[in-house]
Amino acid sequence: MNLTELMVDLVKDGLKHDVRSFQMRARRVAEASKDNNPELAKAIIRTLKTTPTRRQPAEWQPPSSQRPVDQDSRQSLVREEESVVANKPHWDHLIGKTIKEFVFERQNEQKLVSHGLQPARSLLLEGPPGVGKTMTARWLASELELPLITLDLTTVINSLLGKTGNNIKSVLDYARSKKCVLLLDEFDSIAKRRSDDSDVGELKRLVTVLLQTIDDWPHTSILIAATNHGELLDPAIWRRFDNVLHFSPPNKIDVVRFLTDREVGQKTANEIASVYTEKSYSSLERMLHKAKKAEVLYGIDHNESIRQAFGLKSQNISERDARNSKILKMHSEGLNKTQISSQLGISRPTVRRVIKKWQEGDNNA
């Protein structure tokens, strides 16, 4: 970016009362001026260091300080979670590396800003349903200890097209006014190609507003858009985001890793991966939840409940007896439950259950 562009952006920040961004751009102007006008560069840096930051005028308030609502129904346009707790999703190597770098930049935001640099502000997540896009947004909010704000499309989409545009603008303004993670799920429904003749002018103008908003998004909050249909997005959308991540369905190795991380035995995990056809982490999570309920309600063995949930053949009595004998033998030799679980490829809850049943005098664990 040349000096002229920097100066124009500096003026914009001043007009928007964005003090932090103004300071950042002023440092960049000083950096860009130090060769041709060193005196100007020194004067800018000196002024930044010696001039106290003035509070914004009391009469000026962000236009979106209140949670946005639809003007007709008075229903909230967003779902907001102040304390997000989320498990780390499963990513391939490239996605994991990008997410790690994104988090590192956000955690070192002040260091970057002090050198006239901005941390990454936006992510576009593209891929089929159930592969971890929403989970990624939740995990990022949890990791960075920020509230997660999710656009509620059912309320936002108003039968009156002009109201839809106003609703989305209200949500964007609200998220810009505070430190948060804003998730625009089903992004293709509001950022469709402007060349689509089936859409009217109001929706096409909305895409233009979205493009401008992404360009001007403040570094104080994070914008995440997720779509199952990347082919529907306006081409200009893609290059506006700092990072674009393409999610793919899990392969067999991914399925095994996902299951073993959730206390499924190695053998059972391999069997599930060999027959699993739904190809989404969310469906795997649903089946594990179903198995857990069967285990609690009917007292079914942990591994057996998982096999039943995924439609695998039950282990016969001799296999179970042999397994139990190995567990008890290793237990009597002084191995702890974690060591037994690791060496036999059996989940820790199963090991604990067998030992507990044996201690209670019941050998039919």
TrEMBL record:
InterPro entries (alphabetical): 26S_Proteasome_ATPase, AAA+_ATPase, ATPase_AAA_core, Homeodomain-like_sf, P-loop_NTPase, WH-like_DNA-bd_sf
Domain of life: Bacteria
A Pfam family recorded for this sequence: HTH_23
Sequence segments annotated as region (Disordered): 47-74
Nucleotide-binding is among the record's keywords: yes
AAA+ ATPase domain boundaries: 119-251
Keywords: ATP-binding, Nucleotide-binding
UniProt family annotation: Belongs to the AAA ATPase family.
Protein name: AAA family ATPase
Species this chain originates from: Marinobacter xestospongiae
